[in-house]
Amino acid sequence: MDVHNVTADAEEFTCNAYLVTGERPALVDAGTMPGVVDVIGDHVDDLDRVVLTHQHHDHVGELDAVLDAFDADLYAHADHPRRTHALADGDGVALGEESFDVVHTPGHADDHVSLVGERTLFSGDVVVYNDGAFDDGSFGRTDSPGQSRERLIESLEALLERLPDSVTAMYAGHGDPVPDDESVRAVIERALARAERREPKYD
């Protein structure tokens, strides 16, 4: 399974949008980068599905353009006018040649889900490697209306419970991938410990 960050060259604020190639080419989040359709087209001729971790603007800004260009199915936890498949905790979804378990991970967003495979985690914004607040294990903001630090803490705990020890790669909605010499589980544990301090993430 090859994973490409198709928004890596963005000049505007966006999430990391990940193209997973293989038998069922899939995009995890769409981002806000104009021209992302062309970047996807550089790698694949067809896109089977778009899977949303959540529907904050930085994750869906170019969603309509992607769906229009590729006539792809849309998988999402929350309602969306173009959703073709609803995601619920415990569901399975295929990306490329691999199957991923859907884990509902609210706190940063009510509709947030993470995708857990045998070797790979797509964590959205519930946990990231670095984001300007922490360098080796951080978590999504919980200081806006509708967000909850307590629910995010519960989500990180659930993610750790359901994460196979075989997972060695984490692709987050922001920041860098986890380095090869780092443990994904350890990164999540550090993020959880920092979230449990219940201190403001940013000054």
Number of helices: 5
C-alpha Rg, in Å? Answer: 16 Å
The CATH architecture assignment turns out to be: 4-Layer Sandwich
Q: Tell how many strands the DSSP assignment holds.
A: 13
What is the name of the CATH class? Alpha Beta
- CATH-level-4 superfamily name: Ribonuclease Z/Hydroxyacylglutathione hydrolase-like
* Main sheet strand line-up: 1-2-3-4-5-6
Could you name the CATH topology?
Answer: Metallo-beta-lactamase, Chain A
N to C succession of SSEs: EEEHEHHEEEEEEEEHEH
| Structural class by sheet pairing and helices | alpha/beta
| Helix content range | 10-25%
| Mean pLDDT across all amino acids | 97
**Dominant shape:** globular
User: How far apart are the first and last residues' alpha carbons, in Å?
Assistant: 39 Å
Overview of this structure, please?
The protein has 203 residues and is α/β, with parallel strands linked by helices. The chain has a single domain (3-196), classed as Metallo-beta-lactamase, Chain A (4-Layer Sandwich). Helix content is 23%, strand content 23%. The chain contains five helices and 13 strands. The strands form three sheets. The chain has a six-stranded mixed sheet with strand order 1-2-3-4-5-6, with helices on one face. The protein has a five-stranded mixed sheet with strand order 7-8-9-10-13. Strands 11-12 form a two-stranded antiparallel sheet. Helix 1 links the parallel strand 3 and strand 4. The N and C termini lie far apart (39 Å). 42% of the residues are buried. Keywords: Hydrolase, Metal-binding, Zinc.
Short description:
This protein is an alpha/beta fold.
